[in-house]
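In line with agreed milestones, work has continued on tokenised descriptions of protein folds. One protein thus recorded appears below exactly as we store it:

>
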Amino acid sequence: MAKDALMDFDKALELFEPVLGFEVHVELNTQTKMFSSAGNPANSANHDAAPNTLVAPVDMGLPGSLPVVNETAVRYSISLGLALGCSIAPSSRFARKNYFYPDLGKNYQISQYDEPIAFEGSVEIELEGGDTIVVPIERAHMEEDAGKLTHMGGSTGRIQGAEYSLVDYNRAGVPLVEIVTKPIFGTEHRAPEVAKAYVAAIRDIVRSLGISEARMERGNLRCDANVSLRPRGQEKLGTRTETKNVNSMRSVERAVRYEIQRQAAILAGGGTITQETRHWHEDTGRTSPGRPKSDADDYRYFPEPDLLPVEPSEELIAELRAGLPEAPSVYRRRLKTDWGFTDLEFQDVANGGLLAEVEATIAAGATPASARKWWTGEITRLANAQGTEPAALVTPESVAELQKLVDAGTLTDKLARQVLEGVIAGEGSPQEVVDARGLAVVSDDGALIAAIDDALAAQPDVLAKIQDGKVQAAGAVIGAVMKAMKGQADAARVRELILERAGQS
């Protein structure tokens, strides 16, 4: 595949104005699916279900099977609409979206079209440095997810070059809410940052509502990023592309930046933009063409004849409104105050999309400082090396347990990093990794004194320097002891014992 020509980002923004739009799909964590009694794989209880074991006749599109609306999914959808500042429709209707779905047995998706459950809202998002921007929401509508195709035999995992494909219907029928923004203007050079911050804000909202785990790496939260450019001074919007199912906030940011650079190069060269879906490639940092983007007429929407309209009562809407959590901007300001972080420290957490992880780690018993240190430091480093999100590697509870072992003196920071790697590798809890690998700090003074004596015997001149009051010379002995103990010693205790042996305590 030939590489796209890219224009320098700053140059692209001199010539063109970016206009953004996002379609974020949120999988709801109800116990059962949107229209059937089958278990919901987006619920943590069903994550590890074998393929094609969470299915019902409706999910398979079997003749005579009829959908039944999941009441909890409707309540979750209304709560999300309210949290997005939307109006809730007194009556909304499901529709059939007709399309060739190889992973939906009935060959259409039950969605909402011209009568969504929620409409006309907005979300305030906070950018680096404390700046805010309001993202206008057009609608939030209920629908069902499609199944999952696994393409076998190719080198890329995509259908191109694959020998055959496997279909898993577990995800078919999972309850979804699709949040669609209006065109977003005025983002300018911060367009990629806005994309990342918006998805992070949606993730924070749905997690605080408790309606989704919002794990992007698991597909609980997926973003389609729409990008178009128009020449400076032009009123007419440019042709947009839609980069599909980007599965991390970092990738959303990169995909928007890439599309701006790619489209600018085409337009500056006299070309035209094709209205199409595009696929994001994490390994190369590029997008590639998908299919020409269909318009609504192509889907032949019509009202779903097997389902009645959804008509929530005013009392239900009032009840759900009263239960809403804080808005993301208020939530962030409160966390910053509660944690006692400086602006820079808080931005490190927020920019990494780690607010929920740090908050949960603190709730599990860690201090704010230690929670921030682990998530923005070693865990993020390991996640970047693996090309995944930090939350995909380890749970907040495990991080808090790891820090407790450090606080208790069982582990040094260096040993704790080794334990973390073991936890991520699936070797068990932090304590189980410590026990299995024998990584606990040696607390037996007798063993430490023996190692110190060996080190002093090998460096008699160092002992003399310490005895003469040059206590900084103890560093050479500490290093030798730590090496002999394979890092499993408390350096501060080793120093104390060295000075005692040298008569300098």
